[in-house]
Amino acid sequence: MTEYKSEVKKIYAPIGRVYERLADLNNLAVIQQGLDNPDAMERIKQQAGDKVKPEQLEQIVQKLRELQFDRDSVSGNTPIGTATLRIIEREPEKTIKFAAEGMPVAANMWIQLLPQNDNECAMRQLLHPPNGGQEARTRRRWPGTDAGILTLLETIHNS
C-alpha cells in the first residue's frame, strides 16, 4: 500500500477548537444534518460539478445518511459488511490517529495539527499501512482530500 499525504492546509480557527471537534466523532453528525439543508446540498452539487454524476451523488448522500457515529468511531455499511474508522490514539491539540476496520485493505489515517497563532492552525492528513508506512515505497498526494476535509471542518466549525 502506498502512503498518501495531503498538503498542509490553514484552518482559521484556534487549534483547541479544531482538535475538540475532530477528537469526538459525534461532532461529524453535523454532516447528516447538512444533507437536509437545501443551500448546503446546492454547494455540494456545485463542488461535485462534472466529476460526479447526479445518480452517484444520490448514492453518496444515502450512504452519508446511514453513517453511525460515536465518540471514537464512524461506521457505515458496504457491500462487504460494516466498515469502521476508529480513533486509536489522541494526542491533544497535535494528532488524532485512526484505524480502518472491516475493510479489505488495512490502513491507518492520521490527522496532524500545528498551531500557527491564537486563531489559526494548520492541518495535514496521512493515510498509510498499519505498520507506520514502512511498506510504502512511494509517497503521493492524497487526491481530492484537501478541499473535502476543509469543507467538512468549515461545516463543523460553523455548527
List key phrases describing it.
159 residues, alpha+beta, 9-stranded mixed sheet, 9 strands
Structure description:
The structure is a single chain. The chain is of the alpha+beta class. Strand 4 and strand 5 (81-91) form a beta hairpin. It is 32% helix and 34% strand. It has five helices and nine strands, in the order E-E-H-H-H-H-E-E-E-E-E-E-E-H. Strands 1, 2, 3, 4, 5, 6, 7, 8 and 9 form a nine-stranded mixed beta sheet that branches.
Distance between the termini: 36 Å
Question: What proportion strand?
Answer: 25-35%
Look at the structure and give the mean pLDDT.
83
Query: Looking at the structure, what is the overall shape?
Result: globular
Structural class: alpha+beta
The number of E-state strands comes to 9
Helix-residue proportion: 25-40%
Tally of alpha and pi helices:
5
Regions with little confidence, pLDDT below 50 for 5+ residues: 133-147
Give helix and strand order, one letter per element, not per position.
Answer: EEHHHHEEEEEEEH
